[in-house]
């Protein structure tokens, strides 16, 4: 639930994981509740800022993906490719873009740094929180299973990936409730009982 996650985030130095070198968490939610989640996250951001003085940076993975496609292929060219050659080639192209020379995890790091610099802030693990939202937009081109692992050592502030999917077993996450479950997640998983 967001309440449990919020309790962890309001601590003087938030501790989201049992691993000291991995300040990350996953908030799991039903993909059908996307718009409800967005509203809940907005309210959480307001409470963290207003009531607890936290600086919350929210990065939309959808926006990073669209920007990456626009910079490399162009959204119009990608749409034309899909119409001419099919969805599978378009999906493969987006995957290559997000995994290529300027991969998604590097884009997340750079966007966090840009936002903090614009605000005149330093990445402070006690006062800054990063929310990664709109992961569902990456489906089916890019699974988020490796994203947090690749951010290890690059991002040092508490980070929450809002993950649309289902839980299988103790830590098996099925992206969008469709993909084969990935059991390689080390971060703590929140939200399995609802919003």
Mean pLDDT: 87
- Tell me the quaternary state: single chain
Strand tally is: 6
Q: Describe the main β-sheet briefly.
A: 6 strands, mixed
Low-confidence stretches: none
SSE arrangement, N to C: HEHEHHHHEHEEE
List keywords for this structure.
195 residues; six-stranded mixed beta sheet; 6 strands; 43% helix
Would you mind describing this structure in some detail?
With 195 residues, this protein is α/β, with parallel strands linked by helices. It has helices spanning 2-9, 34-52, 61-72, 75-85, 87-99, 104-118, 147-151, and strands at residues 24-29, 55-60, 128-133, 159-168, 172-175, 188-190. It contains 7 helices and 6 strands. Strands 1, 2, 3, 4, 5 and 6 form a 6-stranded mixed sheet that branches. Helix 7 links the parallel strand 3 (128-133) and strand 4 (159-168). Helix 4 runs antiparallel to helix 5. The longest helix is centred in the first third of the chain and has 19 residues, at 34-52. The protein is globular and about 55 Å long. It starts with a helix and ends in a 5-residue tail after the last strand. The model has no long low-confidence stretch (mean pLDDT 87).
